[in-house]
């Protein structure tokens, strides 16, 4: 499953950009929400999710890179998100935040920065649908994948099996391209967020095709 990250899209023709990747066969759209506090960048809010919801039927995968995500979760639920992911590092009450998402009828994602370990996973594994392993430090698109995160993906896959929660899908985000996608897949990832690898190319169908081919070929 390839999830284009619209952070790398041309904001001047936003809807057309999303339409382009949906027409190219993508069913998940990854929406990066940044508050300028948790990460040093400010991007988009619930209005963007609402606008996309009114036009498209695809899965809207909202990645909240904000402090105190509990304060904004209801806004993104209301806007029509299908998956809402919050960071372990963004709140001392990550379990409460994940429960809030789940109780709203939305799929809950639990995100870990590159230097955060898997210690908390056992305590939230039963209430999450997605484990988002950041393969770059969050805040910006176009960065290089951090190789040490591959071991974490492998360890997370095993940990989920041990916890009897292998249905939790591992999502990877940052620096995913035709060169790296095979390795993250072999490590155990199932959802692949790609921003610049898709939107920096003129022919999005070709770019997504290159990712799919690399995915099938593996490492
Ligand atoms: O969460 C993110 C950054 O914090 C983005 O989803 C990610 O960076 C995607 O961009 P690219 O594929 O260009 O690395
Ligand atoms: Fe993201």
Automatic annotation (TrEMBL):
InterPro entries linked to this entry: Aldolase_TIM (IPR013785), Ribul_P_3_epim (IPR026019), Ribul_P_3_epim-like (IPR000056), RibuloseP-bd_barrel (IPR011060)
Cofactor: Fe(2+); a divalent metal cation; Co(2+); Mn(2+)
Documented EC number(s): 5.1.3.1
Enzyme class: isomerase
Sorted UniProt keywords: Carbohydrate metabolism, Isomerase, Metal-binding
Catalytic reaction equation(s): D-ribulose 5-phosphate = D-xylulose 5-phosphate
GO molecular function: D-ribulose-phosphate 3-epimerase activity
Pfam families in the record: Ribul_P_3_epim (PF00834)
Known pathway: Carbohydrate degradation
Active site annotation, chain numbering: 32, 173
Note on how the cofactor is bound: Binds 1 divalent metal cation per subunit.
UniProt keyword Calcium present: no
Binding residue positions for substrate: 5, 63, 139-142, 173-175, 195-196
UniProt-listed SUPFAM superfamilies: Ribulose-phoshate binding barrel (SSF51366)
Annotated a divalent metal cation binding sites: 30, 32, 63, 173
HAMAP family hit by this protein: RPE
UniProt cross-references to PANTHER family, sorted A to Z: RIBULOSE-5-PHOSPHATE-3-EPIMERASE
NCBIfam families: PRK05581.1-4, rpe
Function according to Swiss-Prot or TrEMBL: Catalyzes the reversible epimerization of D-ribulose 5-phosphate to D-xylulose 5-phosphate.
Family: Belongs to the ribulose-phosphate 3-epimerase family.
Protein name per its UniProtKB record: Ribulose-phosphate 3-epimerase
Native source organism of the sequence: Alicyclobacillus fodiniaquatilis
Taxonomic placement: Bacteria, Bacillati, Bacillota, Bacilli, Bacillales
Encoding gene, per UniProt annotation: rpe
């Amino acid at each position: 499953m390839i999830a284009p990250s619209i952070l790398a899209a041309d904001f001047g023709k936003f809807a057309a950009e999303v339409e382009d990747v949906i027409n190219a066969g993508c069913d998940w759209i990854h929406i990066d929400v940044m508050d300028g506090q948790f990460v040093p960048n400010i991007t988009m809010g619930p209005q963007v999710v609402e606008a996309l919801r009114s036009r498209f039927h695809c899965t809207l995968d909202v990645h909240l890179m904000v402090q105190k995500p509990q304060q904004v979760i209801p806004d993104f639920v209301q806007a029509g998100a299908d998956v809402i992911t919050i960071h372990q590092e963004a709140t001392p009450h990550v379990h409460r935040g994940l429960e809030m998402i789940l109780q709203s009828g939305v799929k809950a994602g639990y995100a870990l920065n590159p230097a955060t370990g898997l210690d908390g996973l056992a305590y939230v594994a039963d209430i999450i649908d997605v484990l988002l392993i950041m393969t770059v430090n969050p805040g910006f698109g176009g960065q290089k994948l951090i190789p040490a995160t591959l071991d974490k993906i492998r360890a997370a896959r095993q940990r989920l099996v041990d916890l009897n929660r292998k249905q939790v899908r591992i999502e990877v985000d940052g620096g995913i391209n035709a060169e790296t996608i095979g390795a993250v897949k072999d490590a155990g990832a199932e959802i692949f967020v790609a921003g610049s690898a898709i939107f920096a190319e003129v022919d999005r169908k070709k770019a997504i095709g290159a990712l799919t081919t690399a995915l099938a070929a593996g490492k």
